[in-house]
Amino acid sequence: MGRVRKTMTGPWVIVMVVVAVGAVGFGLYWFQPWKLWQDETVQEALPEVAAVSTPPPAAPSEETSAPPSPATGPRVLAQGELISHEHTTSGTVKLVRLADGSHVVRLENLDTSNGPDLRVWLTDAQVLQGKAGWHVFDDGKYVSLGKLKGNKGSQNYALPADVDPSGFRSVSIWCDRFDVSFGAADLARA
Asked: Does residue 52 lie in a domain region?
């Protein structure tokens, strides 16, 4: 008499396969490991602001006031060098006031890893070296300036009009999915 070998079939095997495929699919979506090998380079110039038109000269009067001063160009208010946190990161960060009074955070010569859900944050946190600095930026006040446009290059991020930049001291390349800084820079006032 021959022995009958039991094979693994049945509904529980199908459930295990579905669970395994689902877990792999979720892991790929959540970590997006292919981004580590994909670079996105963005090269933006500093925004130009249209020249402010001067009003026509007023009729002569006994009291004369100084003519309006012409618009000045962009002015760097603060800057700093990016240091590495979770991923190797380098480049320069500048807080710039444009001629129209608006502000931008400018990343120059950025070089970091690509990743899921990367943001540019203006924060009130002090930049700390090493692992001590990986998670400090969401502990205090911060403003998300939007998704990181590219992990390499030079790019601009406008500050909302209601944000006073004087209350912030650093910029972080923040991975919102894993709540960790890829790199950050202290802003030294110019």
From this structure: no
Domain contains 109: yes
Q: What is the mean pLDDT of residues 28-34?
A: 58
Can you give the CATH number for the domain in which 114 is found? Answer: 2.60.40.200
Instruction: Give dist(CA 118, CA 112) in Å, integer.
Output: 11
CA separation for the pair 155, 93 (Å, rounded): 10
Which domain range does residue 134 map to?
72-189
Instruction: Using CB atoms within 10 Å of the CB of residue 123, give its burial: 0 to 12 exposed, 13 to 18 middle, 19+ buried.
Output: buried
Q: To the nearest whole number, what is the mean pLDDT of the chain?
A: 83
What pLDDT is recorded for position 56? 45
Q: What is the pTM of this model?
A: 0.73
Of residues 165 and 36, more confidently modeled: 165
Alpha helices in 7-151 (DSSP H): 11-31
Tokens linked to 80:
């700093």
Count of domains for the chain: 1
